[in-house]
Amino acid sequence: MNDDWWRNAVVYQVYPRSFADGNGDGVGDLPGARERLPYLAWLGVDAIWLSPFYTSPLHDGGYDVADYRDVDPRFGTLHDFDLLVRDAHELGIRVIVDIVPNHSSNEHPWFKEGRRDWYIFRDRPNDWESVFGGPAWTQVEDGQWYLHLFDPTQPDLNWENPAVRAEFRDILRFWLDRGVDGFRIDVAHGMIKADGLPDAGTNDGRQIEMLGRGRLPYFDQDGVHQIYREWRPILDEYGAIGVAEAWVESPQRLARYIGPDELHQAFNFDFLLADFDAKSFRAVIDKSLAEADLVGAPTTWVLSNHDKHRHVTRYGSLARAKAATLLMLALPGSAYLYNGEELGLDEVLDLPDELREDPAFKRTGESRDGCRVPIPWTEDAWTRPWLPIPARWMAITADKQEADPDSTLNFYREALRLRHELSGLLVWCEAPDGVLHFRRGRHHVFVNISEQDTPITGKVLLASGPLNAGALPPDTALWSAE
Ligand code: GLC
């Protein structure tokens, strides 16, 4: 297998709870995911990234880990995990797992046993706010307070304690020894807090608005890089990669997480956050490529994940979503897909409140449940799914789409197949307002975000929608070859 596979890989995010249910209990699991590997191989992905499947009370969908070295019984067993890795590798698919080092569950034995020096306990709280809303501190019986940048059930670990660092290096090895090809590092910008835990200076809900936009005393502190410098030799020993989930203020700050002595990649959320607009896309693409170049790493692209509204809904139509997908998949670097986007799934906005499980919902009224609704493989793939599947998705189940050459699913498959032909630097070509046009080698990429049809050149390889007498209509993208 090639060491540099990740540089232009397509990585498919599996949210285990919602992906596929192997035992019919309404909750997705690892055996279910394993059964769908042939589908993923058929689709043409290079790797899967599994969101957490570890032992967890699931207060934050598993991002609250109670045992970093075991599988939650609802998701299966370690043996199921081993079988999944084995089968994936046989199909040529790499496996990346999520690691959650910023915080554990409050049900982790470390917390329950009262190891206060493994967490951040203080006699008095400061003004920090939780990302999920409200204060970031909760008081315990003897009057002390502990820090939780997320839910109160997710106490922050104390990364100034060498024992915590040693423990996580060991956890990395545990999964590397089981054959994983890399880690997606949750809240990779969070583990080190500013010395003395200084106030942020505002505590009226505005800290949340600064996430990823400004500097806060609990995110993106320089000390965090030392951790990745300690991890990198371990990753290198196994030929594995590290991908940072880091919400930081600029591509320059993001670039500091990647490079030969830190991590391999970082999610480029600026692309996901860009408006459906030619100027915004172009600005983000130029900036991201320039910054990634500086550190000699490829950039990553992502449009949907388990934390954001699905891009069909964000952009307002399937046509636009497919155009953006074709843009993303034509860019140099690697691309991350989120399970179900290949079916054109939209956000489920009308879930009944009592079924919503996202801890942020109670604290902020915003919920990420609508992108976590189980995948409609067939009309009856799920009995009692943990979130109800909308009736409208019965027309776009995976089995129906597999059989339909014009489906969104077959469009994704074709894009992943043709993507291998696109290589070389991205060179912008002159284009009318609202139209993106670039070249990679002998291939051309057009994205029409204007109000009029636009002419194209070359022989059409793939388009995200029908052409109009040879011209590219609005909200449509196309790849062609000279
Ligand atoms: C990351 C995860 C998100 C989780 C949070 C806390 O942002 O993507 O789902 O809630 O970290 O672990």
Descriptive overview:
- The chain has one domain: Glycosidases (TIM Barrel).
- It contains 16 helices and 18 strands.
- It has an eight-stranded parallel beta sheet. Strands 14-15-16-18-17 form a five-stranded antiparallel beta sheet, with helices on one face.
- Strand 14 and strand 15 form a beta hairpin.
- It is globular, with a radius of gyration of 22 Å.
- Alpha-D-glucopyranose binds next to loops.
What would a concise description of this structure say?
The chain is α/β, with parallel strands linked by helices and 482 residues long.
- Helical stretch count? 16
The largest beta-sheet arranges its strands as: 11-10-9-5-2-1-13-12
Helix content: 25-40%
The level 1 CATH classification is Alpha Beta
Supply Rg.
22 Å
**Separation of the first and last Cα atoms:** 32 Å
Query: What CATH architecture label applies?
Result: Alpha-Beta Barrel
Strand content: 15-25%
Q: Kindly state the number of beta strands.
A: 18
The overall pLDDT average reads 96
Low-confidence stretches: none
CATH topology name, in short, is TIM Barrel
Ions, cofactors and other ligands present here are:
alpha-D-glucopyranose
- The chain-level structural class is alpha/beta
By CATH's scheme, which homologous superfamily applies?
A: Glycosidases
Task: Sum up the overall morphology in one term.
Answer: globular
Count of separate structural domains? 1
Largest sheet: 8 strands, parallel
